[in-house]
Structures are given as structure tokens and as C-alpha cells.
Write a structure and sequence with these properties.
The complex is a heterotrimer of chains A (about 350), B (about 575) and C (about 270). Chain A is mainly α and about 350 residues long. In chain A, about 75% of the residues lie in helices and about 0% in strands. The model of chain A is unreliable at about 355-358 (pLDDT under 50). The chains are: A mainly alpha (about 350), B mainly alpha (about 575), C alpha/beta (about 270).
Chain lengths: ~350, ~575, ~270
């Protein structure tokens, strides 16, 4: 029994195609970078500026990616509505900021500004967590043992439901985030263009991620989460409350997303009901990039994606004379997603969700 | 007697808890409906002219729903059942009352767009805060009435229920039904029954009476029974006649109902066509493709470029010469995008294809391709598929309807033929368990690729016809919601099922288009429907039938575990 | 030349060595069993042969040609079919369709042909249906073809899975615990059925089995695995007397299991 020649030819074509695909990507990246750098159009300061904004953007992706990666780790499910949880956090932060501004606290002095931002983040974390637990209860928990596509579709439903609920509550318009004057000032550093907001984003993201990492690795509940991710039924036999572990996972991811929402809004200064969708998909990319299910991987993946998105358009595309390459930054991010899925589905650090085929 | 009482007490006290829970849920839903904007927006449209608006109907239905669920779950005598309904309704209404009181005390409008004085007026029948007690009382009354329906025998309950459903349905579609009636010489009847929007009060009573009477006479059941009692040949004749009549209806619909409606059903037909195409990918092979719009764009832009007589047109071909090129290009694109990703796991595939859709959308609107595709300015002056004078009956959307219908039939035929072939079986096998399918000698990448390419081809065809329908193609037409629409209508209708796709398209495309003013809430509705479907009916409304091959005779045992011959509903 | 030969096959999962340096051969037309305690690596070995796992070391040869780098479908094309320990039928397809799927690569209709309904395609399909009905009859499921696989009783599901594997016209059939969960009468029937497979169709059979009565009754040779290594190989009589085998079984505290399964039926011995 030999395969027909058509089938063999198709097989060969597929292999060739994949190689050509790789080659084209590599050529575009390398040649584009060389051309851009050779043109000398951009000074060192510009590049540093791009790296800095990439770092803050990447920190936000990393925070968001944690939610995807932990939920995937424990339930093998893409929490499609995670971007909306992030958006909800940004809205909660917005209303907190407006209220604080009315009391004259937001811009009273640098110290009170920082306190205000901390309050905003805490409120956002609380709101996002509450919302995520509600979504888990209604849209995911009844489907835990269903085939994979079923909870994914339910999650897509939840994503739309949240988006359009927010649209209904707050309208389709764009909300301009109240400005915190201190944050938009430049940090007096030589050579490095960096605003205080960038520093805030990077530092608070690092603090939260360290906290989360320690929680997952050291605390009892964190150990329970890791055990359930490894093997649900064995963990249950060991007396671990599986449901509690899952709910905690959702809560932790949502809290990170809520904080990320406020940080994102402080950076870009505007939000609307659709704000969570694209960052959500990109953070998922970051999670896959780092190896889904892998907590340090998600952080690294986020930081890496932030850099690619920030530097990439200019570095790879400008050299080819592509007009307004920044329009294409999402194209680069999504291409990245496809590349990782195709050529290294286990991500940079390797996924913790091994033995899926068995 | 005393012994009975002491025994009864703890259980009856316990039985109030579910009632309260139902009431709380109802209250949350009612407040949600008010604040999310559904009540105020729907209030602009009367259900029964001058009596009740659609927005109020939504609230009333929530109260009645809470009341009837509570009553159905209540244990004990008649009084307790009615009381349970009243309590649940009152709690539901009470939430609305609380909202009005809270709104008077605090300016919620700073946060919530819809928490306006107008909303409060509407919730209290124009009395404002002074009437904040009204929702509570109305809720109790409606809840009690709904509970009361559970005290009377089902013989009365069912007809009353159907009567109310008929009033709501006809009230919703009143505008649509009125126009053809007015033009067809039945204008007296039309004016008597229908206001410009909604039913007239007398109309509502008549509709209720007729529907109730029809149900009391057990109309539907009697007709069904009489048909199934007929001898084989005559029964077949009845079915054939029914089929011919409905086919005729399908064909004359756009002509009878006129311009706007033709536009809507053309879109429905277009989505049926695309749904049937994606059904091969998603329904048969189980590949969740969320990047359908990518191939739709390829089809639409190919036709645009090849046929347009305006700025970006390159060939000025006739429409029909461009369509095959569009389909082939979309297919090639499907191969190009599908090849690298079809090896990856199903849920990753969904996200990867979503990424493709976004890439194409961004590229279409980018400066990079502005010189070729026109960007936001788009390609205009795409000729209609059939060139006729503007007053010809085939002008405008009507011809697109027929074209889409014909192609949908072709796609259905293709899908049906393929399903019965070794390829269709291989797709379903992959959907069921791809490891096992591969171990049986099925090449996964090749088989999946074919499904993906066929889906892409029909997406391209859909895009091409869309370009013909609109007469232009802009980057803003390439949106994520095209992919979501098509995927959702298959999921809701029933994966792998052709009637399911048609029903899904009518529900998810047709009805939201008919109620254009509500289209803001379309995706909210999608979200709820998707979650609810996954929880309660993941196989869809009309799941695909089993392919029976060994004996070619229908089995009496029905697949879903339902006893055969059980009529739907109660 | 043996039909299938494994040479020094090693499969690891992380630090765990599931199969270690395994040498194994099976001749054309033979019935060979692989036995061993739970977790001995039997199913892992099957998965390596059928291409479900990539092996780290060694090679697997079919007719002297290496197959361990091939995909599952390519291995199936070469005439290797299998069943699964926990039955894996296509539950939403009928019994008939399950068998038709098994014939996939013996059919030749292209998608265009299928759409157009050409004569070649129709003849192809007709032949496939005739063959599928024949196979249904062969596995004792005539009249059950239009039933959904998930609605079949357990024993019928096991037989249908064998029928689906046979539809591929295999030369080597891998049966993973074909009598698991069956009552004595069904087990007897299945044993007879397996023997007929070889005698009537000439299929070479490799099976994993826990029921000693089946193993001892139909195997010509038996290989015993423990901790991923082959600790013994030989005829049923040799295996029953092998001290290492006895130790492997008794040493695990599964005395009851061994005793319970080695009832004094024909071809088996109470001495194990």
C-alpha cells in the first residue's frame, strides 16, 4: 500500500512551503533591519525611546498574559473574555480617578497623585476580580468537562456580552482619562527619553509579577494551583479543593488584568468599550510566546512582544520604504503569533502543558 | 391537623428561599435591562399602540418570568403557588423601585449613560420618584398573575400563553406586515389591526382571542394528526404541496414585501451562502475559523479591482468574469494561510485565524495598500451582476437575493455531496478524534487544508456577491464581525446542519437587520445566545441528522434520546 | 524476515523511561501477546509502533523498512491498524460510517469527483458500502450499521473498533486489551474471533491483554514487559514457568489478580 503520487507531492509541497515561509520572514526581518539602520534616519535617542515605550507596553502585556497562561494551565481553555476584564479595570480606574479629581486629590501634590493612582489600581483590581468570578461562574464552570471548543465559544460569547454591556452602560464614546500631571513629565535623565508614567508602569508591573510568582511558588494555595494544573483528578484525590484552586486562578489573573487596565489607560490616556479586545489577543500571543501555562514564560513573552511591537515596524519595515509603518504594528504582532504557533508551539521557555497528545 | 402543620412548616419555610432567589435574579435582570439602555431605547416603539411599549414589555416579561419560574418551583397549595409568584414578581419590581429611589438621591448619570430622569419616568409611568412604588406593585401583580396561571389547569394555561406570544410577535412585526397589506387592497384590515408601529388595542385583543381560540381547538396538533393519519401517498402529496408553497413563498418574498425587506433578505441569503461554506470548515471538519473575513475581503476586492469603472479599477471586466477569479484567489489564499497553521491544536487555530482576519483588515485600511485598494476611500462603481433598468423588478437588492439563493443552493449541494463521500467522512472523523482519524490513514494536514480552502472559496464568493450588492468596497467593510456573524450563525443553528444554517441566519442576521434601531444591542444578544447555547444546547437549534447508510430506512428511535413523535413544546 | 521488528527502542517522558532498549520481533501470520503489570510500558510500546509517540533511540522496522520516523497516517498506509484500550470510536457517526472511515485510503474519489458524482466515484462508494456491510457482518454487527457508535452496547463497541481497524486491510493488527470489561462469555467469543481473524484473513496479530486465559489460549509467543524492559519471551508454557515473570507479578502484590485470572481452563495452568 503506497500513498498515491498526488498525496506525496502534496506532502512535499507542504514541507517546501513551510521552509520558504520561514526564509521569507527571516529575509524580511534581516534585510529590513539592515536597510533601516544603514539609512541612518533614526538617531540613538529615537531607538532608546522606542525601547522604553516597548518596555512599558511589554510590562502591560506581561501582566495580562499571566491571566491567560494561568487559566490555560489549569483549565486548558483560552479565556477569550480576559481582554474585557482588563477593559473593565480601566473603566473602574477611570471613575475612581474622576471622583478623586473632584475631591481635588488627583493632582494636589506628587505624593497624593501617587496615592490616587494606587487607589485607582486597587479599585480596578477589585472590580475586575468580581467580574471575572461572575463570568467564571456563569459561562465557564458549567462547561468544565465539555469538549475544548465549547468553553472557547462560551468565552467568545462572554467577551461580546461584556463589551456591549459596557457600551450600553457607558456609551460608545471614547473617554479621555483624567491626566495626572506628574506622570506625564520627563524623568531628568541624560540620553533616555522616559516619562514618569513609563517608570510607574514598569515598576508596578515588576512588583506585581514578583508578588504573583512568589504566591504561586511559595504559598499553599499557589501549590494547590500548580498541583491542579498538573493533574486535576490526582490533585482532587490528594484532598485539594480543585474548585477553590480554579477560582483563585481566575481571581489572580483578573486582578493583574485590572491593574494592567489602569496602567494602560494612564499610558494611552483614553479608553472605550472595545479597548480590551486587541490588547487581549496580543497578550494571548505573549502567553503562547512564552510557552502557555508557564508563568515566567508569560512575563518574558510579554516583554518581548512589547519590544517587537514598539521597535519592529520601524526596524523591519521602514527600510523598505513602507509608508506609516506604525499602522502595521498589529500585523507584526499577529504574524508573530502565527510564527510561534507554527514553528515553536511550546513557546520560548516550553509549555507546562505537555503530554497533550497522549 | 396540628401534626400536619408542624410537619409542613419547615418545608414551606424552606421553599421560600428559591422564590427569593428567583426574585433577586429577576430584579438584577430588570435593573440591567434598564441601565444597559434596552428599556429606554425599546420604549420608543409601541407594542400595543398607546397601551404598552416594547421597553415596558421587556420589564413586564422579566417580572412575569420571575413569577412563573417561582410559581412552578413552589410547593404547597394554590395560595402558596400564587403567593410565590407574587413575591418573586414583587422582588423583581422592588429592585426597579430601589433603582428609582437611588437615582433620585444620587446622580447616577455621572456613571451610567442611561440613568436619566427619562428612564425613571418611564419606569414609573411618568410619575418620577413620587411613583417609585409603582414597579413594586406592578411586579407583585404580574408575578401573581403569572403564578395564577399555574393554578389553573394546563388546558387554560397553554392557550393563554400562546395568545400572549402571538400578541408580542405580531406587535414586533407589525410595521413589516402593515406595508404589504396597505398596498394590497386590504388597507382597511391593516388600519384596523396595526398602528404605524405596533398593534392597535383592538388589534391586540383580536390577535389574542384568535390565537387562544386556535390553541383551544388544538389547531396545530389537530392538523399534524390529520396529516399523519393520511395514507402514505396522500401524505406525501401534502408534504410536496407544502414544499412547493414554501418554495414559492421564498421566491416571491422580495417582490411582495418591497425594497427594505428585499435588502434584508438578500443579506440573509448571502449569510446563508457563507454559513454553508464555513459549515464545511467548522461544522464538518470542526475547525473553528474566526478569520473568515480575510477571504471575504479577497473576494470582494478582487471583484472590485477587476470590474470597477472608477478610480482603482484595473480591468473593467463584467461582474461574472471576475467572480471565478475571486473564488480561485480566495481559495489560493486559503491554502497559503492554511498550510502553516493547520497542524496546530484546535483552540490555537481559532486565535491564529482571528489574527489573519485582523492582519487582512489592517492591511486593507493601511497606507501601504492605499494606492492599490483605495483604503478608506474604497473602490466604487462596481457594476451590478445583472444590468437592468432601475425600475425593473430585478433591480437592486432583489437580484442579489436570487443570486445568493442560487449559489447557496449550489453550496448546499456541494456540501451534501462531499459529506456523503470519503472526504466528508474523513472531516467528521477528524472533528470527532483527530488522533484516531490519522491512525486510520487520513492525512490530517491535507484533509483539513481542503476543508479550509473550500470554506475560503465560499467566503470569497460571498465577498464577491457582497461587492455586487453594495456596489462598492471600503476598508471599513472588512470587519471582525463578519467572521463572528458567520461562525455564530452556524453554532446557533447547529454545526454541520444545512437547515440549521438557514435558521441561524434568519435569527442572527435577518431579525437584527429588521430591527435596525436595536442593532446596537446585536452583539450583546450574540454574547448571551452563545453562552446560553453552550450551556444548554451545544449541538445547536437544528443539529445535523445522522447519515444512515446500512439499511436506508428511518429508525424509530430518535438520536437525541427523546421519545420519537413527541411534539415540541407542551 | 520478521514482519515487525523493534531494535533497542527507548521512549522517555521527561525523566521517566517508559520503554527501555526493547528488542522485539513478530513473524507474519503469528499471534503474539505482550503482557506485564500495569505501567509496564505495553501501551507505550503500541503507541511507538503506531506512530503516536516519537522514540528517542532505536528503530522500528516493518518488512525491514524503518517506520519510526513516519506519521501515523503513513504507518497506517503500510498496513498497521490498531484498537485502543479505552475504546475510541467516532461517537457521532454510525457504526457503518466508522467502518467506512477505516477504508479511507483504499478509496480514491477526489473532491471534485465527489461533487460531480462521477461514475468512478459512485462505483467506488458502492464498493465501499458493500465491503463495509461485509465487515459489519464479519464482526457480528449486521443490522446495527445505522446505530450511532455511542449507542452500541460495550461489547459491540469493542467489536466495531476491530471492524474499523480491519477496514484498512491491515497486515499487522495491534489490539490493546480487546477483552477488557467483558464477561466470561463475551471474552470467550472475542478470543475465538481473534483466532479467526488470523486463520481466515491471515492478519498478523499483536495484542496486549490482562486476561491470562485469553493470553495463554491463543498466543503462540508471549513477551513480558516490566518497568519498560522485556524480562521474558517464549511460548505460553515457558512463560508460565519463568521465575522472573512470577516475581514480576507476585512481587507487585497482585497475587489476587493473577490467581483470579488463571482459572484452570484449557491451555492455561494454575501454576502461574
Amino acid at each position: 500500500m503506497k500513498a498515491t503520487w498526488v498525496e506525496r507531492l502534496t506532502d512535499a509541497a507542504i514541507v517546501t512551503f513551510l521552509w520558504v515561509f520561514r526564509l521569507v520572514i527571516v529575509v524580511v526581518v534581516v534585510v529590513g533591519s539592515i536597510l533601516t539602520i544603514a539609512s541612518g534616519r533614526y538617531s540613538v535617542e529615537v531607538w532608546i525611546g522606542l525601547v522604553v515605550s516597548g518596555a512599558s507596553l511589554g510590562s502591560i502585556y506581561a501582566l495580562l498574559a499571566l491571566g491567560y497562561t494561568m487559566v490555560y494551565g489549569i483549565l486548558r481553555m483560552i479565556n477569550f473574555a480576559h481582554g474585557e476584564i482588563f477593559m473593565a479595570g480601566a473603566f473602574a480606574g477611570y471613575f475612581t480617578a474622576v471622583t478623586l479629581d473632584e475631591f481635588g486629590m488627583l493632582n494636589a501634590n506628587p505624593l497624593l497623585s501617587i496615592v490616587s493612582v494606587v487607589i485607582m489600581i486597587l479599585v480596578a483590581m477589585a472590580v475586575s476580580t468580581a467580574l471575572a468570578l461572575l463570568v467564571e461562574r456563569i459561562a465557564y464552570r458549567p462547561l468544565r468537562n465539555a469538549p475544548r471548543l465549547v468553553p472557547l465559544i462560551s468565552a467568545i460569547g462572554a467577551s461580546f456580552f461584556l463589551q456591549y454591556t459596557f457600551r450600553g452602560f457607558f456609551g460608545p464614546g471614547i473617554y479621555a482619562y483624567p491626566s495626572v500631571t506628574v506622570l506625564s513629565e520627563r524623568i531628568p535623565l541624560p540620553l533616555i527619553t522616559m516619562r514618569w508614567v513609563d517608570a510607574l508602569v514598569i515598576v508596578s508591573a515588576l512588583v506585581m509579577m514578583t508578588g504573583l510568582y512568589l504566591f504561586v511558588m511559595r504559598s499553599k494555595l499557589g501549590t494547590a494551583i500548580r498541583a491542579v494544573s498538573e493533574d486535576k483528578s490526582t490533585a482532587a484525590l490528594m484532598g485539594i479543593d480543585v474548585n477553590r484552586a480554579i477560582v483563585t486562578t481566575f481571581a489572580l489573573g483578573a486582578a493583574m488584568a485590572g491593574a494592567a487596565g489602569v496602567l494602560y489607560a494612564l499610558m494611552f490616556r483614553q479608553i472605550f468599550f472595545f479597548s480590551g479586545f486587541v490588547p487581549g489577543i496580543k497578550a494571548f500571543t505573549a502567553a503562547v510566546l512564552g510557552g502557555i501555562g508557564n508563568v515566567p514564560g508569560a512575563m518574558l513573552g510579554g516583554l518581548f512582544l512589547g519590544q517587537v511591537e514598539s521597535i519592529g515596524p520601524t526596524l523591519f519595515l521602514d527600510g523598505f520604504g513602507v509608508p506609516s509603518p506604525n499602522q502595521l504594528k498589529d500585523v507584526i504582532a499577529f504574524t508573530m503569533l502565527v510564527l510561534v504557533l507554527v514553528f515553536r508551539p511550546s513557546g520560548i521557555l516550553g509549555e507546562r502543558v505537555a503530554r497533550d497528545r497522549a | 391537623m396540628t401534626a400536619e402543620l408542624t410537619l409542613a412548616r419547615p418545608t414551606s419555610r424552606g421553599s421560600w428561599r428559591p422564590t427569593v432567589r428567583v426574585g433577586l435574579l429577576g430584579g438584577i435582570i430588570a435593573v440591567y435591562l434598564a441601565l444597559v439602555g434596552i428599556v429606554p431605547l425599546f420604549d420608543e416603539r409601541p407594542l400595543v399602540n398607546g397601551v404598552i411599549s416594547l421597553g415596558q414589555t421587556a420589564l413586564v416579561l422579566t417580572m412575569a418570568g420571575a413569577g412563573s419560574i417561582a410559581a412552578r418551583r413552589a410547593t404547597g397549595g394554590r395560595g402558596e403557588v400564587v403567593a410565590a409568584g407574587a413575591l418573586a414578581g414583587a422582588i423583581t419590581g422592588g429592585f426597579v423601585t430601589l433603582l428609582v429611589i437611588l437615582g433620585a438621591a444620587v446622580d447616577l448619570r455621572a456613571f451610567m449613560l442611561n440613568a436619566s430622569p427619562r428612564l425613571y419616568d418611564l419606569l414609573t409611568f411618568g410619575l418620577g420618584v413620587a411613583g417609585s412604588w409603582i414597579p413594586l406593585v406592578v411586579g407583585a401583580a404580574i408575578g401573581a398573575a403569572a403564578g395564577g396561571l399555574y393554578v389553573v389547569p394546563a388546558r387554560f394555561r397553554t392557550p393563554v400563553g400562546w395568545g400572549l406570544i402571538a400578541v408580542v410577535a405580531l406587535g414586533l412585526f407589525a410595521g413589516l406586515l402593515r406595508t404589504p397589506l396597505l398596498t394590497s387592497g386590504l388597507s382597511q384590515v391593516a388600519r384596523f389591526l396595526f398602528a404605524p408601529e405596533g398593534l392597535t388595542p383592538i388589534g391586540a385583543i383580536i390577535v389574542f382571542a384568535v390565537a387562544t381560540a386556535f390553541n383551544v381547538a388544538r389547531g396545530p396538533v389537530a392538523v399534524g394528526r390529520r396529516v399523519s393519519a393520511l395514507p402514505g401517498r396522500e401524505r406525501r402529496a401534502v408534504f410536496v404541496a407544502g414544499g412547493v408553497v414554501s418554495l414559492l413563498l421564498v421566491f416571491v418574498m422580495p417582490l411582495a414585501l418591497g425594497g427594505f425587506f428585499a435588502q434584508v433578505i438578500a443579506l440573509v441569503a448571502l449569510y446563508v451562502l457563507m454559513g454553508l461554506g464555513l459549515n464545511i470548515t467548522l461544522g464538518l471538519a470542526g475547525l473553528l475559523d474566526l478569520g473568515f473575513v480575510a477571504f471575504f475581503a479577497v473576494g470582494a476586492y478582487t471583484v472590485g479591482l477587476l470590474t470597477s469603472t472608477a478610480e482603482f479599477g484595473i480591468a473593467q471586466w463584467p461582474f461574472w468574469a471576475a467572480v471565478p477569479i475571486a473564488v480561485l484567489l480566495a481559495m489560493a489564499f486559503g491554502a497559503f494561510l492554511g498550510l502553516p497553521i493547520l497542524g496546530i491544536r484546535g483552540d490555537y487555530l481559532a486565535i491564529a485565524t482571528l489574527g489573519f482576519g485582523e492582519i487582512i483588515r489592517i492591511l486593507a485600511g493601511s497606507d501601504l495598500l492605499k494606492g492599490v485598494l483605495g483604503g478608506p476611500r474604497g473602490i466604487i462603481n462596481i457594476p451590478k451582476p445583472i444590468g437592468v433598468a432601475p425600475d425593473h423588478f430585478l433591480s437592486g437588492a432583489t437580484q442579489i437575493y436570487y443570486i445568493a439563493l442560487v449559489f447557496a443552493a449550489i453550496v448546499a449541494f456541494v456540501a451534501w455531496r462531499l459529506r456523503a463521500s470519503r472526504l466528508g467522512r474523513a472531516w467528521v472523523a477528524i472533528r470527532e478524534d483527530e488522533d484516531v482519524a490519522e491512525a486510520l490513514g487520513i492525512s490530517l494536514v491535507q484533509t483539513k487544508l481542503l476543508a479550509y480552502m473550500l470554506g475560503a472559496a465560499f467566503a470569497g464568493l460571498g465577498g464577491a456577491i457582497f461587492a455586487g450588492l453594495v456596489g462598492s468596497i471600503f476598508s471599513s467593510s472588512i470587519q471582525l464581525f463578519v467572521s463572528i456573524n458567520v461562525a455564530a450563525l452556524i453554532i446557533v443553528g447547529g454545526m454541520g446542519s444545512i437547515p440549521g444554517v438557514i435558521v441561524g441566519a434568519i435569527f442572527l442576521i435577518g431579525i437584527p437587520e429588521l430591527f435596525r434601531e436595536f442593532s446596537e444591542y446585536r452583539f450583546l444578544f450574540y454574547g448571551i445566545v452563545l453562552i446560553a447555547m453552550m450551556r444548554y444546547r451545544p449541538e445547536g437549534l437544528l443539529p445535523s441528522r445522522i447519515v444512515r447508510r446500512e439499511l436506508h430506512v428511518p429508525e424509530t428511535e430518535s438520536p437525541a434520546g427523546l421519545p420519537a413523535g413527541e411534539p415540541l413544546g407542551r | 524476515m520478521p514482519l515487525l521488528a523493534a531494535r533497542a527502542v527507548t521512549k522517555r517522558f521527561g525523566g521517566l523511561v517508559a520503554v527501555h532498549a526493547l528488542d522485539f520481533e513478530i513473524d507474519e501470520g503469528a499471534i503474539v501477546s505482550v503482557i506485564g503489570p500495569n505501567g509496564a510500558g505495553k501501551t507505550t510500546f503500541f503507541n511507538c509502533i503506531a506512530g503516536f509517540y516519537e522514540i528517542e533511540e532505536g528503530e522500528i522496522l516493518l518488512d525491514g523498512e524503518p517506520i519510526h520516523r513516519l506519521r501515523r497516517d503513513q504507518i497506517a498506509h503500510l498496513g498497521v491498524s490498531r484498537t485502543y484500550q479505552n475504546i475510541r470510536l467516532f461517537n457521532n457517526m454510525t457504526a457503518m460510517e466508522n467502518i467506512l472511515v477505516g477504508q479511507h485510503h483504499h478509496l480514491h474519489s477526489t473532491w471534485i469527483g465527489a461533487i460531480l458524482g462521477t461514475r468512478g466515484v459512485r462505483e467506488d462508494e458502492d464498493r465501499a458500502h458493500v465491503e463495509a456491510r461485509r465487515l459489519l457482518r464479519f464482526v457480528g454487527l449486521q443490522g446495527r450499521g445505522d446505530t450511532l457508535a455511542s449507542k452500541l452496547p460495550y461489547g459491540d463497541q469493542r467489536r466495531l473498533e476491530v471492524g474499523r481497524a480491519l477496514a484498512n486491510k491491515p497486515r499487522l493488527l495491534l489490539l490493546d486489551e480487546p477483552t477488557a470489561g467483558m464477561n466470561p462469555a463475551e471474552t470467550e467469543q472475542m478470543t475465538e474471533f481473534i483466532r479467526n481473524l488470523r486463520d481466515d484473513l491471515g492478519v498478523t496479530i499483536l495484542l496486549i491483554e490482562h486476561a491470562m486465559r485469553v493470553v495463554m489460549g491463543i498466543s503462540e509467543r508471549i513477551a513480558v514487559l516490566d518497568y519498560g524492559e522485556k524480562i521474558a519471551e517464549g511460548t505460553p508454557e515457558e512463560i508460565q514457568l519463568n521465575p522472573r515473570v512470577i516475581e514480576a507479578y507476585l512481587g507487585r502484590g497482585s497475587v489476587a489478580e493473577v490467581v483470579a485470572q488463571s482459572d484452570p481452563g484449557p491451555g492455561s495452568a494454575a501454576s502461574v
